[in-house]
Amino acid sequence: MVLGDQLDMYIINLRGDGEFSGIEGITSLVEKMVKTKKNLIFPLVYMLTKLSLLLLVATATVERVFSAMHIVNSRLQNRMRDK
Length: 83
Hints:
There is one protein chain. By secondary structure, this protein is mainly alpha-helical. It has one domain (3-79). The chain is 77% helix and 0% strand. It has helices spanning 3-15, 26-35, 38-41, 43-79. The longest helix has 37 residues, at 43-79.
């Protein structure tokens, strides 16, 4: 089954399931998927939601590293002389 088909079936399945009515965000969606074992039924949808959660962390980490590099480079460049 391809991702598009799984997404369609997943949406239909969740609309009929009352346990997913109180979902407030993607984190609680993933937690509820694991609790109800829907992560085994819809593995591609589960992987997609996990990757979307990881993307936020990965992006923030990379931005912090580049920010720290900019500070280090600026200090070194300010100390450099013509010699």
